[in-house]
Amino acid sequence: MYLEELFGLGGKVAIVTGGGQGIGQVVAVGLAKAGAEVVITCRHGADETVRLIEEAGGKGYYVQCDVTSEESVDKALAEIMEKSGRIDVLFNNAGICYHKGTFEASIDDWKEVIDTNLTGEYIMARAVGKIMIDKGIAGSIINMASMSGTIVNIPQWQAAYNASKAGVIHLSKSLAIEWAQTGVRVNSISPGYVATPMSIDPNFVEPELMAAWMPLMPMGRMAKPEELIPAILYLASPAAGYTTGSDIIVDGGYSVQ
Ligand SMILES: NC(=O)c1ccc[n+]([C@@H]2O[C@H](COP(=O)([O-])OP(=O)(O)OC[C@H]3O[C@@H](n4cnc5c(N)ncnc54)[C@H](O)[C@@H]3O)[C@@H](O)[C@H]2O)c1
């Protein structure tokens, strides 16, 4: 009961962007288990996430949304407000990465990553923050950063990704202070390597790269996506009422080496 009081999300509506797979999918189920109605937004459907939420006894539905487009975000939020009437939590998770040296990557590669990871999170946070403030909702926005916002991963090069995540950390702090007196809290989370399609799909990560990463991980393994749920649940919940402008690092010790 006491834990419910601190961490329960009953009666709350939470949006998870990029929730069709990977971290977003697992966290969406976790938020639903904590009592939230979860809206999964992504570009290409999220039937499996909705199925997993319902299987766990939770409530959730999918709304199509491309975070790089203001028009798409506004349309999705209008649909969510019509269906659910409020938004209490935004887990701003959608993101992409490429591994290319700076001279191999085109400016379009750079723009695609910045547009998705940084501008996309800004567009979502700005639009959701406006709704929360206008409706007087003491909401929580949790932006997905990464340890790559602080350290530089090796041996792959990913300057745009690292820069986008550093931007997310400081964007979160900036919005946290700008909105501190409105009741809306803004924080970020910075995971290390997490076992999801982005980090283990052989079409994206060559086996040699994986072999190079492993000895760099102090715990000798990647995080399971489930291991991010508690930090996100904390930031989403009443327990974090005085936590804003923070970046919670969940990287198994990687960034302190
Ligand atoms: N996997 C890791 O090791 C790791 C580590 C630190 C941070 N992260 C971050 O976590 C987040 C989720 O990553 P993941 O590992 O689950 O990756 P993933 O590739 O499995 O999932 C990313 C999701 O984002 C969606 N997406 C991409 N562009 C979008 C857009 N324009 N609009 C809407 N949705 C879009 C994808 O469709 C997908 O559902 C990303 O922001 C990533 O940078 C991942």
Q: Quick one: CATH superfamily?
A: NAD(P)-binding Rossmann-like Domain
| SS element count, helices | 9
**Helix/strand-derived class?**
alpha/beta
Number of domains: 1
Largest sheet: 7 strands, parallel
Return Rg in Å.
17 Å
Low-confidence stretches: none
CATH class: Alpha Beta
* Bound chemical compounds: nicotinamide-adenine-dinucleotide
Q: How is the CATH topology named?
A: Rossmann fold
Distance between the termini: 39 Å
What portion of residues is helical?
40-55%
CA-based shape: globular
The overall pLDDT average reads: 97
How many strand elements?
7
Blueprint of the fold:
Elements lengths: L1 H6 L5 E5 L4 H12 L3 E6 L4 H9 L3 E6 L5 H15 L4 E4 L14 H29 L4 E5 L14 H20 L6 E7 L5 H4 L6 H7 L15 H8 L10 E4 L7
Parallel strand pairs: 1-2, 1-4, 2-3, 4-5, 5-6, 6-7
The structure holds nicotinamide-adenine-dinucleotide.
Describe this structure in words.
The protein is α/β, with parallel strands linked by helices and 257 residues long. The chain has one domain (2-249): 3-Layer(aba) Sandwich (Rossmann fold). Helix content is 43%, strand content 14%. The chain has nine helices and seven strands; from the N terminus they run αβαβαβαβαβαβαααβ. Strands 3-2-1-4-5-6-7 form a seven-stranded parallel β-sheet, with helices on both faces. Strand 1 (13-17), helix 2 and strand 2 (37-42) form a beta-alpha-beta unit. Helix 2 (22-33) packs parallel to helix 3 (47-55). The longest helix is centred in the middle third of the chain and has 29 residues, at 107-135. The radius of gyration is 17 Å and the shape is globular. It starts with a helix and ends in a 7-residue tail after the last strand. The mean pLDDT is 97. The structure holds nicotinamide-adenine-dinucleotide. Residues 17-18, 20-24, 42-43, 66-68, 93-97, 116, 120, 144, 146, 191, 193-194, 196-199 line the site of nicotinamide-adenine-dinucleotide.
